[in-house]
Amino acid sequence: MSNEESTKSESRNKKENNLLRAVLGRKTTTQTEPLPDSETFIRPDINSKSLVLRHVDVGSCNGCEVELGLCFAPIYDIESYGISLTASPRHSDGLIVTGVVTSNMAAPLMDAYRATPAPKVVIALGDCAINCNGLGDGYGVEGAVGEFLEVDLQIRGCPPEPKSIIAELRRIAKA
């Protein structure tokens, strides 16, 4: 790179930085500011009634998954109540299980349950998870969730509406 090109590049960078300062209204920096004290940064009373769940689909038609997904859409915004999903059972307060337990998913369900720290809650979402909803005689069907785990909450429906899912999860989050 020639000396002239280097000068042009520096000039362009200076103009971009000035533009950024003007747009942002503050000095740009590459240094990160320290976080505030944890006691003032996160109010413990806000997250004291949160509920973090690991969703496990053990063999459903995906109707319950669609309705559960809608709970997290902006129109329902279940996360504003402190209820969220996590990808790891190790970081959850419990399991929310959909579908009939199939032979291929019985072991992963039990693994997820064992990986969830105590105290934990098990929620059967939808009629298939609660009582197999007529699918109990199907090939590869092992049974309802209650035949494998002690279920703490049943949310009925085929599929249950987002409003009823949110109402039941809020009730258990407050307990």
UniProtKB/TrEMBL annotation:
<dbReference type="InterPro" id="IPR006137">
    <property type="entry name" value="NADH_UbQ_OxRdtase-like_20kDa"/>
</dbReference>
<keyword id="KW-0411">Iron-sulfur</keyword>
<protein>
    <submittedName>
        <fullName>Formate hydrogenlyase subunit 7</fullName>
    </submittedName>
</protein>
<keyword id="KW-0004">4Fe-4S</keyword>
<dbReference type="GO" id="GO:0046872">
    <property type="term" value="F:metal ion binding"/>
</dbReference>
<keyword id="KW-0408">Iron</keyword>
<keyword id="KW-0456">Lyase</keyword>
<dbReference type="InterPro" id="IPR052375">
    <property type="entry name" value="Complex_I_20kDa-like"/>
</dbReference>
<dbReference type="Pfam" id="PF01058">
    <property type="entry name" value="Oxidored_q6"/>
</dbReference>
<dbReference type="GO" id="GO:0016829">
    <property type="term" value="F:lyase activity"/>
</dbReference>
<comment type="similarity">
    <text>Belongs to the complex I 20 kDa subunit family.</text>
</comment>
<feature type="domain" description="NADH:ubiquinone oxidoreductase-like 20kDa subunit">
    <location>
        <begin position="61"/>
        <end position="170"/>
    </location>
</feature>
<dbReference type="GO" id="GO:0051539">
    <property type="term" value="F:4 iron, 4 sulfur cluster binding"/>
</dbReference>
<keyword id="KW-0479">Metal-binding</keyword>
